[in-house]
């Protein structure tokens, strides 16, 4: 059975102190590159990377164009080289 809740006015936080935007939106920030893939078309090759976003689970990662991610978030590529898909990849055993 539910009990009556006693409210405490000292626990109420004014909205102005929180800093919520009017649109109630936030920016997703990539935190890790999981994989890299090259798709060969008739006249060119398109390189995509699998990106893990902040506040998302591994199952909800997305494939993005590598050149766009390098342009917007170059720090993801400075720390280490992204492995190619293949038998020597450390991610192939996962």
Automatic annotation (TrEMBL):
<protein>
    <recommendedName>
        <fullName>Chromo domain-containing protein</fullName>
    </recommendedName>
</protein>
<feature type="domain" description="Chromo">
    <location>
        <begin position="33"/>
        <end position="77"/>
    </location>
</feature>
<dbReference type="InterPro" id="IPR023780">
    <property type="entry name" value="Chromo_domain"/>
</dbReference>
<dbReference type="InterPro" id="IPR016197">
    <property type="entry name" value="Chromo-like_dom_sf"/>
</dbReference>
<dbReference type="Pfam" id="PF00385">
    <property type="entry name" value="Chromo"/>
</dbReference>
